[in-house]
Amino acid sequence: MTPTITAFERSPDGGRGLARDMQVRWALEEVGQPYDVRLVSFTAMKQPGHLALNPFGSIPTYEEGDLALFESGAIVLHIAVRHAGLLPDDANARARAVAWMFAAYSTVEPPILERATAVILEHDAPWRDERLPLVDDRIRKRLAELSRHLGSDCDWLDGAFSAGDLVMVGVLRRLQRSGLLNEFPNVAAYVARGEARPAFKRAFEAQLAVAMAASNS
Description:
Layout: E1 4-8, H1 21-31, E2 36-40, H2 48-51, E3 61-64, E4 67-70, H3 72-82, H4 91-121, H5 128-150, H6 163-172, H7 185-195, H8 198-216
Parallel strand pairs: 1-2
Antiparallel strand pairs: 1-3, 3-4
Helix pairs in contact: 1-3, 1-6, 1-8, 4-5, 4-6, 5-7, 6-7
């Protein structure tokens, strides 16, 4: 059965591939699973039909038969468990890959999202100029830790590419306009390796096509 995911009808990122459906698209492309996309407006996301799928009124959602999921991390994990290609066969390695997924969302991403809030939503706030350097330093701490783990000879977080890398790269891509990634060349190279994967490129182009169609309408 072909799953259906939801995505923004008009993505706030304008086609940069940062919306949460990007990671789900990428996971589906990595495992070779065809999928359908249902585009939703910001208004529709708050209506009962969508809230029945995601009580928080956001995207993405994932429907397959009688299964409905929300939260991109949960959806990526479901895809990785159900299809070969995103989790190692070895039980311990699988557990570590899942741990890296949690690390991406719970440890690395929070200060990155805090930075986005400061830059986008609080740009006129009187405390913004004092707060932003503090947030950047928290991000640098996480990037330094990640850089130390990767070292000079690791292509991926734990052996072969996994769902942990997919999520981590997705999280780190939010920093590309900040200049912070460039301070850690091996982390920047790690992100570039993820973006070079054919499955990533297919997912990015699919999301970009939606953004371009919206801008032309």
